[in-house]
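Legume lectin domain-containing protein
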Amino acid sequence: MGDGSIRIPAQDAQANQAGRALFASPVRMWDPNTSIPASFDTTFSFVIQSSSSSTSHETGGGLAFIIAPDELTVGRDAGYLGMLNDACVHHRRGNSSEGRRPVIAVEFDTFKDDEFGDPNDNHVGLNLGSVISNETADLSNAGVFLRNGSSVTARISYDSSIQHLQVRVNSLLDDDQVLPLISTPVDLSSFLKEYMFVGFTASTGAEALSHSILSWTFSCA
């Protein structure tokens, strides 16, 4: 886009689309000699907007930060948020990696999909190898409403030394003021390969939405 932001999917807002935007080079996320995952920290700002021509609100979509094993696979549209497709979907909950893809995602979902156990149509969720979230939180508790077209800032941090992940979300992120919406102990090593691709996926359903990444930083060690 002309303003330097990235739109996902790349087309103007259309129904039933999915896409992804990933950093071009893979990142070392797991040490096979020690089986210790990398610690990481990422902060990004984004906007989700409804299309003015959209008349259906039956299904929406959303955006996800993703750590994926390859740069080519694009997941399904609608409730799958572009994260996973039919070949790799596992409708399972829990922290076990059995039968799951090495995928980690934090979703920002605009639709309550009962099939996936969504709590509402305005939530953040931690997904481990599945479209079903292991942990969710209501974004309205942070004063964030995904559909209203306002800029949202999120920070996701993982400390591998204590195996703990936190997600903070706010309209104007200030780490000294914002409490984490998700704060959970989790060993990510089972969901990682040595090298992974990091970035974003997004999808639309019957309702056409546009998802724009305004800024992004990522670091790992």
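thats it. The first strand starts at residue 6 and ends at 8. Residues 88-99 have pLDDT under 50 and may be disordered. bye
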